[in-house]
Amino acid sequence: MSLIEDAPRILAGRDAVLRVHDQPTTDAVNRRLNELRGAVRAGSFRRQALRSTERMTYYKLALETGIAGIAVYLNVLDFPGGWLSPEQHAPRPEEKWQECREFISRSTVLLVPVDSTVVMSATDPEHERMVPELLKIAQVEQVAESWATARGTEPENRALLLLVPMKCESYFNDNGGSKDESGLLFKKVEKIYGRALDVVRANAPHAQILYCPLDTLGCVELTGAQSWLPDGDGLQLSAEFTVRPPGEISVKGAEEILIAVCQNLAAVRHAGQQEKTRQWEERHREIEVVRGRPMTLRERWRSLVSGERWELRERGEFARKQAVRALRQEEHFEQLVADLALRPMGPRIREL
After folding, report:
1. Alpha-carbon separation of residue 4 from 8, 14, 107, 170 (angstroms)
2. Residue-wise pLDDT tens digits, 109-123
3. Residue 199 forms beta bridges with which residues?
4. What is the rounded CA–CA span in Å between residue 135 and residue 129?
5. What are the angstrom distances between the C-alpha of 37 and each of 52, 185, 217, 248?
6. Nearest alpha-carbon partner for 336 in 346, 328, 345
7. What is the pLDDT of residues 4-63, one digit of tens each?
8. What would the 3-class secondary structure string for the chain be?
9. Packing angle between helix 194-203 and helix 182-192, nearest 10 degrees?
10. pTM of the entire structure?
């Protein structure tokens, strides 16, 4: 949601726009944005006030460039974190979970959200003991291994893992925050997810791994009202946030995520466009070879009468035009990839 909320500012003045691609995505995005804005208007809220994902949801977006046929499509799948440990939550629908696993295995980008409040609020051994369970670290490692194994079978294609701490407003001072604990947050996240990163490196050595902390709202601050409450056999974090005046949402970190994702997907799409260009050029050459083959007078007369000669010429011309069109699209993709690659990442971003 932060990405969609901040997209107009990120892309302002550029020949590109991020659009929602279908009505279900529009409805889901509007519900979530209204919820976030409602929390800000309330002036303060507890960590539990913002609902977590309750069902598997597809978000279909398109980065359009204003040129016909030149767009990068982003199909995002968000699924309930409770599905990673269904024995502790409501039973998950296994058919949907299988669909989710298949989507992950096909994806070139894996984004792992991290609750930074849990990471930073664990200040004693009893709290630290609960962190792996609250963040489902073992389950995340399994998902990361499955994704990396699938990506490892296609080393010629790009792969990107994004480690995204959420709700970082209280730990950075570059967006209205009162203190800077960004270094400590990075060290903790890197340690907690260290094994997952090692698994990805081992199974997909070509994968790029980025640490991308995100201010979800920007205008909120974690208050001192943090408590760890009994929850079954463990503890659950309860934290309160207050809204900093003037109470305007100020997302930070989404730009780098958008750049990284679009760099990856544009490069993948560009590779596919190159293959499409090659296929049409090869098809045109094959037809021209057939057209240029010596024919006897009888064969030439037969081909003229049957219309075969005319049809072959038309097919050759169509293939030529398609090859030229594909080449132009390929050149536009090269320009788009180059433009994205030149956009600098902010100081928050780290490559792991």
Report:
1. 8, 16, 20, 22
2. 999 999 999 999 888
3. none
4. 11
5. 16, 26, 9, 9
6. 328
7. 766 777 666 666 677 777 787 788 778 877 877 887 887 776 665 455 566 788 888 877
8. CHHHHHHHHHCCCCCCEEEECCHHHHHHHHHHHHHHHHHHHHCEEEHHHCCCCCCCEEEEEEEECCCCCCEEEEEEEECCHHHHCHHHCCCCCHHHHHHHHHHHHHCCEEEEEEEHHHHHHCCCHHHHHHHHHHCCHHHHHHHHHHHHHHHHCCCCCCCEEEEEEECCHHHCCCCCCCCCCHHHHHHHHHHHCHHHHHHHHHHCCCCEEEECCCECCCCEEEEEEEEEEEECCEEEEEEEEEECCCCCCCCECHHHHHHHHHHHHHHHHHHHHHHHHHHHHHHHHHHHHHHCCCCCHHHHHHHHHHCHHHHHHHHHHHHHHHHHHHHHHHHHHHHHHHHHHHCCCCCCCEEC
9. 60
10. 0.79
Cα–Cα nearest to 245, from 224, 223, 220, 225: 220
Assigned token pair, 287 = 């037809």
